[in-house]
Amino acid sequence: MQVPDGWEVKPLKDILTIQYGKDQKEVESESGKYPILGSGGVIGYTNNFLYDKPSVLIGRKGTINNPQYMETPFWTVDTLFYSHIKNKNVPKWVFYVFQSINWDSYNEASGVPSLSTANINRIEVLRPTVKEQEQIAKILSTLDKNIETTNRLIEKEKNIKKALMQELLTNGIDKDGHIRTRATHAYKESELGLIPEEWELVSLDDFFKLKSGDTKPEDTSDSGIYEVYGGNGITGYSNSKNNNDETLIIGRVGEYCGSIYLVNECWITDNALYITKKVKKFDTQYMFYLLHFLNLNKYKSETGQPLLNQTTIGNVKTSYPKDKYEQKQIAKILTTQDKKIEIEETNLAKLKELKKGLMNDLLSGKVRVKSA
C-alpha cells in the first residue's frame, strides 16, 4: 500500500489489544445502569462493567461486520470482542478504521461467522500522526451526528405517518378538513365497532377482484422497458407486460405476503396478486394506504409456506368513506407525509455516500487534514 508522508503501516496488534467478553447471566439486572453489548448492539443492562475506557468492539461470533464504539462503561458478552486502545492512537479514529475493514473477508467459519484475535492482530492499516487521527475522527464524527439526526427525523416522520393513518383511516376528515372525533361528529354502530355516520362497512371484494400474476416473462433483460414485479417489488425488466393500467399488487407467498405496491404498466409474476377490476367508488391511492393499514400479512395461511389467496383477502371487512373526494383528501395528506419521509431518506443516503467517500480519502491519506 502507498504510505503518505509522516504515516506508517502498522498491524492492529500494535494499535490495540483485543479483549474477550464474559457471560452476562449473573450480572444482568433490569435496573442496571451499564449496557450489556452483544454483536448486534445492546441486549440488556447491569450494575457492573468490564471496561470503562473508550473502546472499539467487533463481533467474535455471529454478526462480525458491525463495529461498535463506547466511551462509557460497559459489559460485553463472550460473542463480542472489546479492545484496549494503546497510547498514541485515538479511539474514535480506530473505530472508523474498523468501519473501513471488510470483516466478512476475515471470516474463519463455514457456519456461524467467526473472527479470531490472531486474524485481527495481523490486519495492517495506515496510521497517521495522533494530531491527524484527531482531525479525521472529528470530521467523520460530525458526519455521523448529521446521519444520526437525520435518522431520528425519519423515525419521527414515520411515527407521524403511523398516527395519521390510524386517525384518517378510521375517522376520516369532514368537509372542512378536520379529522372527525366522537366528541364532535356522529358515529354509528357496525360489525367493526363505531364508524363515522358518513362511512360504510364493506368487504374488500366489494371494491375489486384479484388475479394471480403470470410466470416470469421469457424476455427479461436489463434493457427492458417494463418493470417486472413480484411479491417483493421490482425483480427485473422486460419488453413484455401483462398489466396496462395503474393498479395495486399484493405479495401472496413467502415472507412478502401482504406487501403492497402501486404500479403502472408492467409484468406481474405469479407470486403476487393484482387488481383486475375495480369499482368507481374507490380512489386507487386511498386503497393503497388502506391495504397497508389493514396489514394483510396477518391473513396468511399458517400451515406450510405462508400464502394469501383471493378469497381470504376478498372477505376482509373494512369501513370507508363513501365520498370519493374524502378518500382523495385522505390520500393527499398521507402522500404529502410520504414525500417528507422520502426527502429525508434521500438526504440520509447522500450523507452516507459522503461519509463513505470521505472515509476512503481520509483514512488512506489521499486527502490530508491540517493538524490542529
Sequence of strands across the biggest β-sheet: 2-8-5-6
Number of separate domains: 3
Helical residues, percent? 25-40%
Describe the largest sheet: 4 strands, antiparallel
Strand content: 15-25%
The CATH topology annotation of the largest domain reads as Adenine-n6-DNA-methyltransferase TaqI, Chain A, domain 2
Please count the helical segments: 6
Tell me which CATH architecture of the largest domain applies here: Alpha-Beta Complex
Unreliable parts? none
Mean pLDDT: 94
Summarize the helix and strand pattern as letters.
EEEEEEEEHHEHEEEEEEEEEEHHEH
Q: Could you say which overall geometry the principal axes of the C-alpha atoms support?
A: elongated
CATH class of the largest domain: Alpha Beta
Number of strands: 20
**Category by helix and strand content:** alpha+beta
Distance between the termini: 27 Å
Computed Rg: 27 Å
CATH evolutionary superfamily of the largest domain = DNA methylase specificity domains
Please provide a written account of the structure.
- The chain has three domains: 120 residues, Alpha-Beta Complex (Adenine-n6-DNA-methyltransferase TaqI, Chain A, domain 2); 115 residues, Helix Hairpins (Orthogonal Bundle), CATH 1.10.287; 121 residues, DNA methylase specificity domains (Adenine-n6-DNA-methyltransferase TaqI, Chain A, domain 2, Alpha-Beta Complex), CATH 3.90.220.
- The two termini are 27 Å apart.
- It is of the alpha+beta class.
- The longest helix is centred in the last third of the chain and has 41 residues.
- Helix content is 30%, strand content 24%.
- It is built from six helices and 20 strands.
